[in-house]
């Protein structure tokens, strides 16, 4: 028995995989974020690190995750807590401040929100450089070799943009991405996964089917998973007393971790 256990541990360390398998208990829904804010290349970045002793953290030492928020930014505690959950899964996780304090007051699918004005102020011409500087910090200063991007709503599109040629990302995950264009899917040069909500005005069933078809055409590994009983935003903000919503948020997180564990 003991010999078997020791062998199992040795194999686990050697393979750098399936060590401390991650389950839903790793997702922290409330409480206090444990990461800190730093400034690099002029960008404010929320940084959450794996525990020093974590086997998964050691295995993933040359990898990092760039967490791209929804329109509520790193101000939203659930965004920082979810970044912490990725760190708990063994990945250095950094979430750049995409909005420099000029946050949206409601989500972009809520009627009455001046989506046009918000998006004009935060187009790719403004957002791409923030993410590029974050990736440059990881690669140049920290020597990170592999970068996964996880994005939510607004940020989901950018997870795709940064795995196109020369952008510096290696694998992408997006939950309920908004404004994702076909050209951005066609351009990917790495594996991409999507978690989709059942109810999402920004990604209704017809658009979801198109995205699926575009992913298939892109010629990269892909996954698109649909979570029943969920709404736009479910990857980050849910009613955790609703079993389907809780399952959806945790499922999307575990989908992302498994994606990076296998393809980053
Ligand atoms: C990090 O920045 C966010 C956004 O401004 C803020 O809400 C949070 O309190 C900061 N965290 C720390 C530890 O200072
Ligand atoms: C953020 O906004 C402040 C003014 O509020 C400005 O001085 C600073 O340059 C801005 N930072 C970025 C990265 O755009
Ligand atoms: C970004 O593009 C928008 C729309 O074309 C423009 O109004 C804005 O001034 C641009 N911002 C920067 C920083 O170039
Ligand atoms: C959260 O979900 C529970 C269980 O479905 C429900 O009873 C409750 O009303 C919901 N809360 C809100 C604020 O929607």
UniProtKB/TrEMBL annotation:
Report the InterPro entries cross-referenced here.
AB_hydrolase_fold (IPR029058), Dienelactn_hydro (IPR002925)
A Pfam family it matches:
DLH
MF terms in GO:
hydrolase activity
Tell me where the signal peptide lies: 1-15
Which UniProt keyword terms apply here?
Answer: Signal
Tell me which domain of life the UniProt entry assigns to the organism this sequence originates from: Eukaryota
Check the record and name the Gene3D superfamilies matching this protein.
Answer: alpha/beta hydrolase (3.40.50.1820)
What residue stretches are annotated with the Dienelactone hydrolase domain?
56-263
Provide the protein name.
Answer: Protein AIM2
Q: In which organism is this protein found?
A: Echria macrotheca
């Amino acid at each position: 028995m003991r010999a078997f256990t020791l062998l199992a541990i040795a194999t686990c360390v050697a393979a750098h995989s399936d060590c401390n398998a991650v389950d839903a208990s790793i997702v922290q829904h409330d409480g206090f974020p444990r990461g800190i804010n730093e400034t690099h290349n002029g960008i404010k970045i929320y940084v959450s690190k794996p525990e020093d002793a974590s086997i998964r953290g050691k295995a993933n030492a040359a990898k990092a995750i760039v967490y791209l928020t929804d329109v509520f930014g790193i101000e939203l505690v659930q965004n920082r807590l979810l970044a912490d959950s990725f760190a708990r899964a063994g990945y250095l996780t950094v979430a750049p401040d995409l909005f420099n304090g000029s946050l949206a007051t409601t989500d972009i699918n809520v009627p009455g929100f001046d989506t046009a004005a918000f998006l004009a102020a935060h187009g790719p011409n403004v957002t791409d450089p923030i993410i590029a500087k974050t990736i440059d910090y990881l690669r140049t200063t920290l020597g990170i070799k592999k970068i996964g991007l996880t994005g939510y709503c607004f940020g989901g599109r950018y997870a795709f943009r940064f795995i196109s040629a020369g952008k510096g990302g290696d694998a992408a995950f997006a939950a309920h991405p908004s404004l994702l264009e076909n050209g951005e899917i066609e351009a990917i040069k790495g594996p991409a996964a999507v978690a989709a909500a059942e109810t999402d005005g920004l990604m209704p069933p017809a658009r979801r089917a198109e995205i699926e078809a575009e992913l298939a055409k892109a010629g990269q590994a892909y996954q698109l998973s649909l979570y029943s009983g969920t709404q736009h935003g479910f990857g980050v903000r849910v009613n955790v007393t609703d079993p389907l919503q809780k399952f959806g948020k945790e499922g999307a997180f575990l989908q992302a971790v498994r994606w990076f564990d296998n393809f980053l």
